[in-house]
């Protein structure tokens, strides 16, 4: 009687066991692929060597799957079934957290006053100034699905006299699970022609110059810097702290779903345009109002004697002008 009850319980668990053993096989296959990729020849190696490494990975994956299936068949008792369920659950958690990474580190010459550009898609970008006439590009690619996706996403750098450009290339319709995080060092005095990403934040710290900073889903920040910067995002906050506002062309600071904080020194001179449709506008800096439409939450004012235009806009969020201590 007890034997029949035990067999009945085991049969009831069989569909779940089958599914969980598939997950174990999936996890084992990924480990095998990752190990083979690490041991594979470099990119410069002949195609035959790479094909051989991939064949080894496939054989290891099949072997792992067959081993998991045999383990399920041998689970003939309640205790064995419970052990297999525990092992499978452990495999599920490991599989969910599985990630592969690849690092990139290169240095390129760039004199002070040169131009730097960076385009990214998935991942944040951090740019910092330093006292060297060169650009150091550090990046980490991370894939949470297929380790081979790392090879499909490339980092291309164009180094010319007075200009360094970094491009993140995703193959059409592939590589969406790969994120690339950048940490770049540039000369203190630099023109950031365009630094942008789609899904991630942009942070610029300790530079003197200007540039265009963009994201779609992420915050944009400029800290401890001087110059004129335009910053745009769709879903995120904007925070700019300028110790010295240089003369120059228009600055456009815009978001849709987010707040704006703009820090300027007391001697800043600018013609200010502000639009905050669903939020408050406050200023710690003295202004001379030139026009305002309170019902539309639109304002025009001068900072100091007036100067280059600064346009600050948001749809859903507040706008604050704060006093920034003078400095560099």
Characteristics:
alpha/beta; 4 helices; Pectate Lyase C-like; 328 residues; 42% strand
The major beta sheet can be summarized as:
20 strands, mixed
Catalogue the unreliable spans. Answer: 17-58, 71-96
Q: Give me the strand/helix succession.
A: HHHEEEEHEEEEEEEEEEEEEEEE
Radius of gyration: 28 Å
Determine the structural class based on helices, strands and strand pairing.
alpha/beta
Count of distinct strands: 20
Our estimate of the beta-strand percent is 35-45%
Percent range for helical residues?
A: 25-40%
Average pLDDT figure:
78
Shape, please? globular
CATH architecture of the largest domain: 3 Solenoid
For the record, the count of structural domains works out to: 2
What does this structure look like?
By secondary structure, the chain is an alpha/beta fold. The protein folds into 2 domains: 95 residues, no CATH class; 224 residues, Pectate Lyase C-like. 27% of the residues lie in helices and 42% in strands. It has a 20-stranded mixed sheet that branches. Strand 17 and strand 18 form a beta hairpin. Helix 1 runs antiparallel to helix 2.
